[in-house]
Amino acid sequence: MGTGMDAQGQSIDFDRVVSRGGTYSLKWNVADGELPMWVADMDFPTAPPVREAIERRAAHGVFGYTDVPDSWYQAYADWWARRHRFGMEKEWLVFCTGVVPAVSSVIRKLTTPAEKVLLQTPVYNILFHSILNNGRQVLENRLAYREGQYRIDFADLERKLADPQTTLMLLCNPHNPTGNLWDQETLARIGELCSRFDVTVLSDEIHCDLTEPGSSYVPFASASALCRENSVTCIAPTKAFNLAGLQTAAVMIPNPVLRHKVRRALNTDEVAEPNAFAVDAAVAAFTKGAAWLDALRAYISGNKKRAAAFIEEELPQIRVVPSQATYLLWLDISGISEHAGEAADYLRARTGLYLSAGEQFGGNGGGFLRMNMACPRALAEDGLQRLKKGMTAYAEALQSGTKK
């Protein structure tokens, strides 16, 4: 059962299904009977201490302009020191309304139109938008996929970083959608190459707190002195504590010259001021949410293990890519089809199961589907049954030529 107690003695029940109807949920804006397991948004209420902090702030009733207090900086610094063994200074941190706004602002500030921004694909699809919408070029360093696992193709990475038009590398650490945790040696090697070719690293670390129990992530800036001085890191409590709608994040920049540029970019783009709840929610999450988060990680790990076992038994044509982080499953359906968009459309039309098609993530994503397992077990089981029904019918339709 998905129940327990947090550090404050409050009950945690991850099995409880909470209706999200009537809340303008992007994820659940679907037809009756459909089951959305696509966007990276959890179906669990946030940690009780976070809810209490929001309720206290709401009870005050006045929601004017909000400053960023010392407690916000301290909450981030203490969390990263405790959880991730990385010391950061107050001056390194800048508030931002979200990781994606930060990414777009940094791209505009640190690159010029038509320059190349390198991505390691398949990767979070919105990063492509941040590059292309700002008039820059996407340069793919495709991850090598062998025997069901992804690795960095360093020979290709070095060639592409050496291109004088490449001025920024957008790193995903931990990696979405593959769930890879990059180790210190790998990150340091990336940092050395980027420093050698004068390419700044912009590291998206929003999934860092959603590691498998017993696993931990390495902040890019901690991997070496070169990594620290040549990087901009985006961090937030929003994925781990399900707070995306509160628009609260931070950008961490140890290098003072880079920090000045990024601070100016965020302020110019008007994404450096918190709403009335953003600070209180983040502080509560990082100061009082550890026990809840550990229980959540264990529950999600159980969902992922159950899914892997189910798919191995019931859908042997599909391979679950092993992951050490995120609550997302990256499903290799290439044994059935290399057209994930078509498969996803068929699944949704036939069973109501709404998954993310892999093409949008670039790289070899055409043979993959992404499935969000951050939900009560009853919904996870429902999703797996729909996956079995839909993919079995899809495979049979392809073989018989009767796909509709």
Overview of the structural elements:
- With 404 residues, the chain is an alpha/beta fold.
- The model has no long low-confidence stretch (mean pLDDT 96).
- The chain folds into two domains: 3-46 and 290-398, Aspartate Aminotransferase, domain 1 (Alpha-Beta Complex); 50-288, Aspartate Aminotransferase, domain 2 (3-Layer(aba) Sandwich).
- The longest helix has 25 residues, at 290-314.
- The two termini are 40 Å apart.
- The strands form five sheets. The chain has a seven-stranded mixed beta sheet, sandwiched between helices. Strands 13-14-17-16 form a four-stranded antiparallel beta sheet.
- Helices cover 40% and strands 16% of the residues.
- The protein has 13 helices and 17 strands.
- The chain has helices spanning 48-60, 70-84, 99-110, 126-132, 154-161, 184-196, 225-229, 238-241, 256-268, 278-288, 290-314, 340-351, 377-400, and strands at 3-5, 11-13, 35-36, 93-96, 116-119, 137-140, 144-146, 149-151, 166-172, 200-204, 231-235, 249-252, 319-320, 328-332, 353-354, 356-357, 368-372.
CATH class of the largest domain: Alpha Beta
Provide mean pLDDT, rounded. 96
Q: Gyration radius, to the nearest Å?
A: 21 Å
How many structural domains? 2
Q: Please report the number of helical segments.
A: 13
For the biggest sheet, the summary is: 7 strands, mixed
CATH topology of the largest domain: Aspartate Aminotransferase, domain 2
Shape: globular
Low-confidence stretches: none
CATH homologous superfamily title of the largest domain: Type I PLP-dependent aspartate aminotransferase-like (Major domain)
Beta-strand fraction estimate: 15-25%
Structural class: alpha/beta
Please count the beta strands (DSSP E, at least 2 residues each). 17
Question: Distance between termini?
Answer: 40 Å
Strand order of the largest sheet: 4-12-11-10-9-5-6
Specify the helix fraction band.
40-55%
Secondary-structure arrangement, i.e. CATH architecture of the largest domain: 3-Layer(aba) Sandwich
Strand-and-helix sequence, N→C? EEEHHEHEHEEEHEHEHEHEHHHEEHEEEH
